[in-house]
Specification:
The protein is of the alpha/beta class. Helices cover 31% and strands 26% of the residues. The protein has 2 domains: 276 residues, Aminopeptidase (3-Layer(aba) Sandwich); 158 residues, Glucose Oxidase, domain 1. It has 15 helices and 19 strands. It has a 15-stranded mixed beta sheet that branches. Strands 6-8 form a two-stranded antiparallel ribbon. It comes from Tistrella mobilis.
């Protein structure tokens, strides 16, 4: 028997039963429609939860990233990673936008440091330093006592020790709160990235003073910790070839320089115009006019620097699969150029500043433009803590401290509340301080977008070697789950608070 009833046979009999109770059929149909929508929404929500990422999936993506090798801007490996990101997003149904940037590439091809007795000193490159002729440069090795004491090496190769200054933490950071509550920053910070900025030699000055090349060697850091650090990454092309010599060779090099010995420095590098891409995609929200910007960068020398794109892809897939679009549009930005900020950043800001300048219609709130009411920056996921100690460079057994910048008190409290489900937490929530805001969350803060920016800073952050043993997939999953909840709660806020000004002083 065919009833022709829109809900089928079951609907026919139920409808007849309810009609007998005096309820009009139109209301019956509406109730069934609502019930079916709720059932459909529940099914889609279950599907969304089912495709939330896992530690196994994150580790698979992580090892695929790592297999590409260092992914510095303009390199073949970085282009391959950009393709990987775009392909994965498109496979999940996203439309991926691409901003192509032209810059001057410096790409090292081979480098070595040779002594006259046939010995070779292990070394790594000083980024964007310079290059030698094919056969290298042979000259006397001259010890210089500081980064500016280079004139004595005119016509020679300078040897410069780079120490690890103990910088008072209060100059760089202002703590809002911590989880656990008793977690504190050390009184003084020793960090290779900071040391490379403050203490590495001024290679432009060296070139102007006729220095033929520079050999740097770390002081105050173990050989294993210092090996293959790709630093500094904040300088433009310098015009003077330079390398970092292995720490274990420091005493030998000093003695060789004191004896007036010769060395041959070889650093061959390709210099040419190149291109690199910033990728971005959008989940359109239900309400026009407001956005949340979620960003990271795609370039870096190792497995954790930068694995933020893994996290953004997982979050984007999750929120796209929810039964309803988010309240506010979510803009996911995968920025290039963090490892050549002088060419990609604008006004001495980090690389995301370029995307912000090029796409003001997505965040600045001007007439006809959307207004970004919040931001999330994710970098360096899953980092475990390794430290120099009596046994050398070794794990401490803890996760690396999670430095989290919060653009206002509301964002800080929101992040703190979302940590409740974690099994491992070492979060220090910061207020930007004395113009210091490390990482790609800086440009969001500087244009007035209140953001949370995760940026752990382990000692191995900028090494070009294998750092997979220092990463933990379970920790990655917990960190991403925290920010999934943060984004959920942000979407429910009627009136997100504006950004607070930075703090100043000691």
């Amino acid at each position: 028997m065919r009833t022709g009833h829109p809900l089928g046979m079951a609907g026919f009999f139920v409808g007849m039963t309810i009609r007998c109770r005096g309820l009009p059929w139109g209301q019956v149909r509406d109730r069934f429609d609502i019930s079916r929508r709720h059932e459909k929404d529940a099914t889609k929500m279950q599907a969304a939860d089912a495709i939330w990422t896992s530690a196994e999936e994150l580790w698979r993506w992580q090892t695929e990233l790592d297999a590409l090798g260092p992914r510095l801007p303009g390199s073949t490996a970085h282009e391959a990673f950009s393709d990987q990101i775009a392909d994965r997003l498109q496979g999940f149904g996203f439309i991926v936008e691409s901003d192509v940037h032209v810059f001057d590439l410096w790409q090292p091809e081979n480098w070595r440091l040779d002594l006259p007795d046939g010995g070779t000193i292990p070394c790594s490159v000083f980024p964007y330093s310079g290059e030698t002729p094919d056969g290298g440069v042979t000259a006397r090795l001259v010890r210089c006592r500081s980064r500016r004491d280079l004139a004595r090496a005119r016509g020679a190769i300078a040897l410069v020790e780079v120490d690890m200054p103990a910088v008072p933490a209060r100059l760089l950071f202002r703590r809002r709160m911590s989880v656990p509550a008793d977690l504190r920053l050390p009184g003084r910070i020793r960090n290779a990235v900071i040391a490379s900025v403050l203490k590495a030699p001024d290679l432009r000055r060296a070139a102007a003073q006729g220095v033929l090349g520079v050999v740097c060697v770390w002081k105050g850091m173990s050989a294993e910790n210092a090996r293959d650090q790709y630093l500094p990454f904040t300088t433009p092309y310098q015009g003077c070839p330079a390398v970092w010599a292995d720490v274990e060779a420091r005493d030998r090099l000093i003695a060789h320089a004191d004896a007036g010995g010769m060395v041959t420095l070889t650093l061959r590098a390709e210099r040419r115009p190149a291109t690199s891409r910033t990728l971005w995609t959008v989940i359109e929200g239900r309400e026009a006019g407001q956005t949340v910007v979620i960003n990271t960068h795609t370039d870096g020398p190792n497995a954790c620097e930068e694995n933020g794109p893994i996290g953004l892809i997982a979050l984007a897939r999750y929120f796209r699969s929810r039964p309803h679009p988010p309240r506010r549009s979510m803009v996911f930005v995968f920025t290039t150029g963090h490892f050549q900020i002088p060419q990609f950043g604008i006004g001495h800001r980090q690389a995301t500043s370029r995307w912000l300048e090029d796409h003001r219609d997505w965040w600045d709130g001007a007439e006809g433009h959307r207004k970004a009411v919040a931001g999330i920056t994710l970098e360096h996921l899953g980092c475990m803590d390794w430290q120099d100690g009596p046994e050398g460079f070794a794990p401490s057994g803890e996760i690396a401290p999670e430095l989290v910048y919060a653009g206002n008190t509301q964002m800080a409290r929101l992040y703190q509340d979302c940590l409740s489900g974690r099994t491992r937490t070492r979060s220090i929530i910061l207020r930007p301080h004395n113009r210091q805001h490390f990482g790609e969350g800086q440009p969001l803060f500087q244009v007035g977008i209140p953001a949370l920016a995760l940026i752990p800073a382990p000692d191995y952050l900028c090494r070009t070697g294998d750092v997979l043993p220092q990463l933990d997939a379970g920790l990655m999953l917990e960190q991403l789950s925290t920010f999934r909840e943060v984004l959920d709660r942000l979407d429910q806020l009627d009136d997100p608070a504006p950004v607070q000004s930075p703090s100043w002083g000691l």
